[in-house]
Amino acid sequence: MSRRRSPLARTARLVAPHTKGSRPLAAGGLLTLLAEVAFRLAEPWPLKFVIDSVVPAAAGGEPAAGTTRLVLLAGLALVLVALGRAAAAYLTSVAFALVGSRTTTRLRAAVHDRLLHAEPAFHARARTGDLVTRVVSDVGRVQEAAITAGLPLLGSVVTFVAMAAVMLVLDPLLAVAVLAVVPLLLLTGRRSSARITDASRAQRSREGALAADTSESFASIGFLQAYDLQPVRAAAFSSANDGTLRDGVRARRLAAGLERRVDVLVGVATAVVLVVGAQRVLAGALSVGDLVVFLTYLKAAFRPVRDLAKHTGRIARAAASGERVADTLDRARPLPDEPGARELARLHGYVRLEGVTVERRPGHAVLRGADLELHPGEKVAVVGPSGAGKSTALQVLLRLVDPVGGRVLLDGHDARRLRRSSVRESTAVVLQEPVLFAASVRDNVRLGRPGATDAEVEAAVRAVGAHDFVSALPDGYDTVVAERGGSLSGGQRQRLAIARAMLRQPGLLLLDEPTTGLDAASTATVLDALRRLAQGRTTLLVTHDTSLLSWCDRVVELRDGRFADVSARYGVGLGAGAAAVAGERRDERVRA
């Protein structure tokens, strides 16, 4: 088994493809960073020249010729170096910030797109709140690892290397004393980083679960209030929240401990340089100016080391988030098209299932060698017990699930050899629970065909008999509905969903319990809209409502994974006399 990559390595691999468009800007940022390093190297030298010229004079010696001019030039040089360093630092910060923001935006869009295209089985297992946390919060923290901390940390390393090189030239003995501390710093940072990553991983996992629980509570607020379960959910939230707090405090405590240990080691190194350096000045091996330069470099060189300690905690926490994002991308696999799959130009409505077998999980088949044929314009109802696989049959036709055996033919074409998107463009679905977003009525209907004009949207609404109630809304077609359509009645929501399907002009219409939960009046209006929508279109209706069967051409029952024609049982497709007899028998069964 190959060794699993570290969280930081997985995060770097995750981010790299999304930096392509920003690499010239990142290169510019690195150049200005190198310029900043150069200005840092130059900063103490004017001070050295002044000290080496002034100290002998202050000690009673003769001042060197041109000392006053040297002092003035040194002062001017310090100002110019400060200005240059400030400009370089500003440009570096802006460049890295832009790179980070652009990279994060691209990464977040890629993760969101992957989740939208993930197969239904993934979303059946995942928790919505946790996915939202990964897309919004975890991706934001990845920016800290890759850009906000990572690129400045690279600059800090360059600064340290450059200053260490200069210190080795000035005095190798002192430089070795300073560099001897570096292995201890690296060892301390590495051990602490692993522990911080573990704590941060636990914290982010708890926060994802917390977001998922919160999302479920708000989505079920009516049920919770009806059963007065607010205290129960609040207690569960409080317990999970306390766990998140503990993990977060642990991660922060470990990071703070790392920074303080680094401070102590830097202090020890500074004391060694001060004592040994003073002895070498007294011995004449160094000038006072050289010692000042050395101490200045020591302070500046160890600032990146302090930054390393500070950023190590941030990077460790961000790497834990990056790992969560990478795990999501690994698991959220979209259903791919087969090589060479082609477009389905237009579905005329001939559908055939031949020996179709579908498994929810290996060895547990829902459909077992199922056969079903629908002719263009035919309306077929599917009945059967709950869990028999009726909704799965619709998913197969939408290519949300592919069969493990048999094949699905659309207008004679094997569905596997067709692009999934083209199959869905020729199909419309009306679900038991209509899906509406917090947008205008017009925009919700337009989802059926995003390029449709306002006139086409209104025509679809009129075609299903929903224009009157839409016009009566406060802003008509521009009325913004509440989330999940909460500001509309069930019948109104369903009619808008039917109008959306009408706008799509599908060749195949799939209806999944479209009247469940509606009262008699709403059911009547929805049925009228459905009849208009289904006119002339191949329609497959999944229902438990026998009142919907009268306008179907056939009824099939799905039981034990196979379809069987039961039209006679429900009086569908028979003459008037036979239909009456079948109706009486059905009534007798209901009374029994």
Structure at a glance:
With 592 residues, the protein is an alpha/beta fold.
Could you explain the architecture of this structure?
The relative contact order is 0.08. Helix 16 packs across helix 18 (490-504). The longest helix is centred in the middle third of the chain and has 53 residues, at 230-282. The chain has a six-stranded mixed sheet, with helices on both faces. The chain has a four-stranded antiparallel sheet with strand order 2-1-4-5, with helices on one face. The protein is built from 21 helices and ten strands. It has helices spanning 7-15, 23-42, 45-58, 67-117, 120-125, 128-148, 150-170, 172-179, 182-219, 221-226, 230-282, 288-331, 390-397, 420-425, 441-446, 454-463, 467-471, 490-504, 520-534, 567-570, 576-591, and strands at 351-361, 364-374, 379-383, 405-410, 413-414, 427-430, 508-512, 538-542, 554-559, 562-565. It is α/β, with parallel strands linked by helices and 592 residues long. It folds into two domains: 9-331, ABC transporter type 1, transmembrane domain (ABC transporter transmembrane region fold, Up-down Bundle); 351-591, P-loop containing nucleotide triphosphate hydrolases (Rossmann fold, 3-Layer(aba) Sandwich). Helix content is 64%, strand content 10%. The model is unreliable at 574-592 (pLDDT under 50).
Low-confidence stretches: 574-592
How many E-type strands? 10
Cα separation of the termini: 63 Å
Using the 3D structure, state the CATH architecture of the largest domain. Up-down Bundle
Q: Largest beta sheet: what is the strand line-up?
A: 6-7-8-3-9-10
Shape: elongated
CATH superfamily of the largest domain: ABC transporter type 1, transmembrane domain
Q: Which fold name is given in CATH as the topology of the largest domain?
A: ABC transporter transmembrane region fold
Q: Helix content range of the residues, please?
A: 55-70%
Q: Which structural category fits the helices and strands?
A: alpha/beta
Mean pLDDT: 78
Sheet with the most strands, sense and barrel status: 6 strands, mixed
Quick one: CATH class of the largest domain? Answer: Mainly Alpha
- Could you tell me the radius of gyration in angstroms? 36 Å
Structural domain tally: 2
Helix segment count?
21
